[in-house]
Design a protein that fits this description.
By secondary structure, the protein is α/β, with parallel strands linked by helices. The chain folds into two domains: 208 residues, 3-Layer(aba) Sandwich (Rossmann fold), CATH 3.40.50.1970; 112 residues, Dehydroquinate synthase-like - alpha domain (Dehydroquinate synthase-like, alpha domain, Up-down Bundle). 41% of the residues lie in helices and 20% in strands. Helix 8 packs across helix 9. The protein is globular.
Length: 344
């Protein structure tokens, strides 16, 4: 029988997060450790059906919010603060945040600031992206106007309760998009993990992915070094999301971004052809309408590129990520041309 239940604690320099991962976990027993404190449950509107019975079982006050990037604002945070205050929430009471990465980022931000961060925060991720990526690592984020994720805090949730039955209602596209983060973590972490991507049970891969993410975060909580490896594929990925006005999902764009980073790694002789083909083979054949190079704007200002170039997370082999500073525009374009031919 394959393993279906995991429990552990991830330790970081500034705190720790417990994980319980399995199936059918949303009941009073799982959350008994919070009693006798007051509990509020903040839930994504699209998982209301699962949130309502849980709130009832826990005697929790329930606030249901619309998900999506528009939820990540100070205005939404204000609504949650008000709800918590009116529900009588005080220091050491518990906020359970149930939703995808957007409601998750909002809820963690609120937990980290309400009563000066003295609430207990429990994350219940309901998308694969939230489960594999945003719930763990202690980064909360809100947007200001068009400027994304510019407000935020570092605050590790006390616990993540990851119930894999929740992902059954995700569309195939959302599931695949979130799974890209798991594939990314495998590529930068470990050969055995990578080789099991096509064969192991999803819950096992999710646990592996979280364990490796915790490993990178523990080395570099505040994103100055090893944690940046988790951005593999994201430099071009974010630019493609913007250039396609988010017609390309985050996962789809990062998937292409990873293949681009692999090509750059070959051009810089970090990877041999054989290594490249073994890793790139994982992605299989795919078609995509890539925007022309002129519409792709990566992080650093293109006007500065001729002087400084662009930084990328590249690969010297599976489990061997590295940061290459100042890649020239000529090389970037060469890799992009290659990509366009591949995806045609
Ligand atoms: N804090 C971090 O470290 C971190 C890391 C990565 C991404 N993020 C953030 O995560 C966000 C993206 O998260 P996301 O992809 O989960 O998006 P999301 O929260 O918008 O969820 C996507 C959609 O799925 C719906 N949904 C959620 N759970 C569902 C379920 N079980 N069944 C059916 N539908 C469901 C939501 O209502 C929403 O419509 C971005 O804002 C990004 O910045 C944060
Ligand atoms: Zn990502």
């Amino acid at each position: 029988m394959p393993k279906k239940y995991w429990k552990c604690t991830f330790k970081f320099p500034s705190g720790s997060t417990k994980l319980e991962l399995g199936f059918d976990l949303l009941d009073a027993k799982t959350f008994a450790f919070l009693q006798p404190r007051r509990i509020c449950l903040l839930a994504d509107r699209n998982v209301r059906e699962k949130a309502e019975p849980l709130a009832k079982a826990l005697g929790a006050s329930l606030l249901v919010m619309r998900a999506g990037e528009s939820a990540k604002t100070l205005k939404s945070a204000g609504k949650v603060y008000e709800f918590l205050y009116n529900a009588g929430m005080r220091s050491q009471d518990a906020l359970i945040v149930m939703g995808g990465g957007t409601v998750g980022d909002l809820g963690l931000f609120v937990a980290s600031t309400y009563m000066r961060g003295r609430l207990r925060c429990i994350m219940v991720p309901t998308t694969v992206l939230a489960a594999a990526d945003s719930s763990l690592g202690g980064k909360s984020a809100l947007h200001v106007g068009w400027a994304k994720n510019v407000i935020g805090t570092y605050f590790h949730p006390e616990k993540i309760v990851c119930d894999c039955t929740l992902f059954q209602t995700l569309s195939e596209r959302d599931f695949a998009s979130g799974f890209t983060e798991i594939a990314k973590t495998a590529i930068i972490s470990d050969k055995i993990f990578f080789s099991r991507l096509h064969e192991a049970a999803f819950s096992e891969l999710l646990f592996q992915s979280l364990s490796w993410k915790a490993h990178f975060v523990a080395q570099d909580e505040h994103d100055h070094g090893a944690r940046q490896y988790l951005n593999f594929g994201h430099t071009l990925g974010h630019a493609l999301e913007s250039a396609t006005h988010h017609k390309m999902s985050h996962g789809e764009a990062v998937r292409i971004g990873m293949r681009y980073a692999l090509r750059l790694s070959v051009l810089l002789n970090y990877l041999s052809w054989g290594q490249f083909e073994r890793i790139d083979g994982y992605f299989g054949y795919a078609q995509a309408d890539l925007p022309p190079w002129e519409e792709v704007h990566m992080q650093q200002d293109k006007k500065q590129l001729s002087k400084k170039g662009q930084d990328f997370v590249l690969l010297r082999g599976i489990g061997k990520p590295c940061i290459k500073r100042g890649v020239s525009e000529k090389l970037q374009m060469q890799a992009y041309d290659w990509l366009i031919k591949d995806f045609a």
